[in-house]
Amino acid sequence: MNHTFAIAVFAGGLGTRIGGNKPSRLLAGRPLADHVKDRVSRWRAPLWELVRQAGQGGLGGSEEICDASPPGVVLEGPLAGLYPALLRAEAEGRDLLTVPVDMPFLPDDLPGRLGAALVGERGPVCAMAQSQGRPHPVCTLWRGPVSGLIAEQAFAGNFSLKALAARAGVRHVIWTQAPDPFFNINTPEELAEAQVLLAAADRKVS
Description:
By secondary structure, the chain is α/β, with parallel strands linked by helices.
């Protein structure tokens, strides 16, 4: 990547479909938060947890950033975490790479390929991962200034990450390998499926 960047992990969701407290749900005996931290730590960038309240995320050793909103509007969903993280990244002159706490198989080349898609681009702009015909708005590299666009969009009643990316100017980057490296876990059934995928990956390595 040509720009410095920070990594922000969305860890503030309620996780109601999986029984709550998603970051602490166990995959192969370890919390989901640990699996994601293992992945993102390889990228050697500042790591921030985006949480609703302090102590929620579970990525030990990272800095927590709590949900916040611009004056005059209350943000909902991921935008409430993205907004303060973007403010921080923009103030430090960094790009911001967002990933969720429920994707334990993130590809090693995620920041490199997203960064390559933005070479020569000036903000506001972003690069978004896509696989199996689906974009993944939570896996996006944001180049500021984007924070001001969030306020404009929220005042119009739109809290969609995908809509924000379109407003900023999005470049899609496609991954084609199987199994899908952007497999995400929202239910007990998906957690069980992730266990099978992880076991298969371990057998390949050994």
